[in-house]
Specification:
Blueprint (H helix, E strand, L loop, with lengths): L11 E4 L8 H10 L3 E5 L8 E2 L12 E7 L18 H11 E12 L1 H13 L20 H4 L15 H11 L2 E9 L5 E8 L5
Parallel strand pairs: 1-2, 1-4, 2-3, 4-5
Antiparallel strand pairs: 5-7, 6-7
Helix pairs in contact: 2-5
Length: about 200
Amino acid sequence: MIEYLKIPKTLRLYLGPGQGVVHGQHIEVMAKEGPEWTFVDKYVYRDGWIKMDAGDLKYPPETVDTIYASHLLEHFAGNQPEGAPNISAQAALKNWYKVLKFDGKVIINVPDFTWACDYFLKKQRNPNYWDKRDTIFHFTADNVLSIFFGSQSTLGEFHYTGFTVVSLSELLKSVGFDDIRIKTMWDAHAMQVIFAEAYKRKSL
């Protein structure tokens, strides 16, 4: 255990906030859960942040109230064979489940792989096509690939897997999460995402 970690009575973690200004959409999601969030990032450090692998949190079991992971889970591997350099999304979720208190909550959003495939094919057929909800990037036929593979511009900006509504729901269930609520929505990254909320409940 890392000794410098101070465990407050209420602990909310924003995992992988990354570079740049935190978008208002993320602030809104966190504000609904309560104040005072701890930012955790492996590659980016700012004053007051915890520099730590978000897939291998070093907090004691059952000490975290809420975890928010936006555009993070796709940065973990789909599987984790022996000797693999990256942990799997399932392993990361198991780690989060372990550190959450009972009735603790995880909030996740990831690129909607089904939407991304449809968007990519439409861009191939018509390079001038774009989703009218996209008022920021207007993905081109080339950079639309970043939805699948990440920007690959810096360490940590690589995607290793993708999710559909069904696959994300099944993954959360496989780890033990309950009361899973999933929807698709447009988000701050100018793409359609899968937004999921799930809880760690005590077994009856």
